[in-house]
Design goal:
By secondary structure, this protein is of the alpha+beta class. The protein folds into 3 domains: about 5-215, P-loop containing nucleotide triphosphate hydrolases (Rossmann fold), CATH 3.40.50.300; about 215-305, Translation factors (Elongation Factor Tu (Ef-tu), domain 3); about 310-415, Translation factors (Elongation Factor Tu (Ef-tu), domain 3). Helices cover about 20% and strands about 35% of the residues. The longest helix is centred in the middle third of the chain and has 15 residues, at about 155-165.
């Protein structure tokens, strides 16, 4: 049976309680093991705490535990009877913008936390801008630490109004406010006792009921080929099978497709899985395809909708978040990995740097340093079959790799 999956991130200012919210979700939904609880209970006692610090369930790095902050992106999987979840706990510090970009790039929803005592801070605004830039259209506004303002309804309503006024120009499809106290568990999984005036859903109920992002399923077919192999080598049936994951759209036997970058057209002959043949398949499924014609296809090629093909070019514009501690050197040759295709390329002219606090554009920056988000031109030696990130996130994203060290030095969103 197919279990619906929701990917979401938590973000907000430092000490808003992001890791504690995730810990409370895992703990109260019975999604942690006894040995995990024992380990964090022991660590909490060494710190002089009277009860388990649930934030330790996600703060996995030693540096984070010593400082009490989140530096890296911590991913956790859990499930309820209604839905499965992958949650990314992303950093609050501005110096870790690159980590948040990594966590948000595949998320369907963002939980933006706000400390009820502090209200909306610059980091709150910055994360809202980044979340929208990265294509997330639904936001849960979690007003946390309500216990520290005596669960005051007027405070909650005032903070909600302030955020909604600020976020209106960003164009979110939905902003869902939820008051909570992650420390005590009010309105995270259980309703608790302090927020009797709030009649809406708990955080978990929102996560279980919010519509999942179906855009990738309704987008045109994009199937990056991961592997090519003979189905039954040495037998009469030596058809080539093309293995990969459907990144967007749907396909069915008989559908007309185009193979890029060659531009050769054919049609789907069969869709195969370990469980047997299928009449059709959709985004997220890993399958083996055969075509009605013998076509020369290699790893990195794209099988796409013939009626709605992607662009296929050797140059493109993109927004890029620079990850490396070494500033961008335009003369440096890099590898660009897009889907299953890796090609040599160069970063061309940088048009502007984005101020992530305001979404304003700073023309022609002198240099590009770690965490900077810039618009740049890219040139590659072989064509890439791509879409704009805004229309197709899986096929509109890429990473830059240092050719010498093999380090990931940037991530990009095609325009």
């Amino acid at each position: 049976m197919h279990t619906e999956l929701l990917r979401f991130i938590t973000c907000g200012s430092v000490d808003d309680g992001k890791s504690t919210v995730i810990g409370r979700l895992l703990f109260d939904s019975k999604a942690i093991f006894d040995d995990q609880l024992a380990a964090i209970t022991a660590t909490s006692k060494r710190r002089g705490l009277s009860e388990a610090d649930l934030a330790l369930l996600t703060d996995g790095l030693q540096a984070e535990r010593e400082q009490g902050i989140t530096i890296d992106v911590a991913y956790r999987f859990f499930a309820t009877r209604r839905r499965a979840f992958i949650v990314a706990d992303t950093p609050g510090h501005e110096q870790y913008t690159r980590n948040m970009v990594t966590g948000a790039s595949t998320a369907d929803l963002a939980i933006i936390l706000m400390d009820a005592r502090k209200g909306m801070l610059p980091q709150t605004r910055r994360h809202a801008h980044l979340v929208r830039l990265l294509g997330i259209r639904r936001v849960v506004l979690a007003i946390n630490k309500m216990d520290l303002v005596d669960y005051d309804q007027a405070t909650f309503e005032r903070l909600c109004d302030a955020f909604l006024d600020f976020a209106a120009p960003l164009g979110f499809d939905a902003v869902i406010p939820v008051p909570m106290s992650a420390l005590h568990g009010d309105m995270v999984v259980e309703r608790g006792t302090g927020l009797h005036w709030y009649l809406g859903k708990t955080l978990l109920q929102v996560l279980e009921s919010v519509p999942s992002d179906e855009e990738v399923a309704h987008a045109p077919l994009r199937f990056p080929v991961q592997l090519v192999q003979r189905l039954r080598a040495g037998t009469a049936d030596e058809r080539r099978g093309y293995l990969g994951r459907i990144e967007s759209g749907t396909l069915a036997v008989g559908d007309e497709v185009v193979v890029l970058p060659a531009g050769i057209t054919s049609a789907i002959s069969s869709i195969l899985t370990y469980d047997g043949p299928l009449p059709d398949a959709r985004a997220g499924q890993s399958v083996t395809l055969t075509l009605q014609d013998e076509v020369d296809i290699s790893r990195g090629d794209m099988i796409a909708s013939r009626a709605e093909p992607p662009r296929c070019e050797k140059s493109f514009d993109a927004l890029m978040c620079w990850f490396s501690a070494t500033p961008l050197d335009p003369a440096r040759r890099v590898l660009i990995r897009h889907g299953t295709r890796t090609v040599q390329g160069k970063v061309g002219a940088v048009a502007y740097k984005l101020d992530v606090n305001t979404s304003e554009q700073v023309p022609a920056p002198d240099h590009v340093s770690m965490n900077d988000i810039v618009k740049a031109q890219f040139r590659v030696q072989q064509p890439l079959a791509y879409d704009s990130y805004a229309s197709n996130r899986p096929n509109g994203s890429f990473i830059l790799i240092d050719e010498v060290s093999n380090d990931t030095i940037a991530a990009g969103m095609m325009l």
